[in-house]
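Support reply, case 0932

Customer input (verbatim):
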Amino acid sequence: MAEAYVDRVANELADMALADQAASGDETIVDQIGEILGASSQTLQETYLTAVRVRRAEARARDILGRRKENGYKEAPKPKAAPLQGLPEDTEEEASEIVDAPEPQTKTPAPSGTAPRRVTR
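Our regenerated output:
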């Protein structure tokens, strides 16, 4: 029963926060609500954040399907990646460049000729 209550409350709060974000343009409101919830209930916070992600994913999927229908079911343009949470939009491009940067090559030490000693008890 408690799980149903948590799910219901998280879904209602996710709907309200996303509606507030759409109406006000304040992109931080979703994160602010998540922080408030996390201060008292990590379970509710996780369920709320999951509900927000599900709704955002659904909106992206519906957008792609709508554009495909408009194009006569030809290939839709590739969707933009989901925005990084907690970063302003102008720093997302910088962050993607950092993520796409090649990993520095490090040398691993060559294995020695002896294997580690196995301890038995």
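We compared this against your earlier run and they match. Two observations from our side: The chain has a mean pLDDT of 81. The longest helix spans residues 42-70. Please reopen the case if you see a mismatch on your end.
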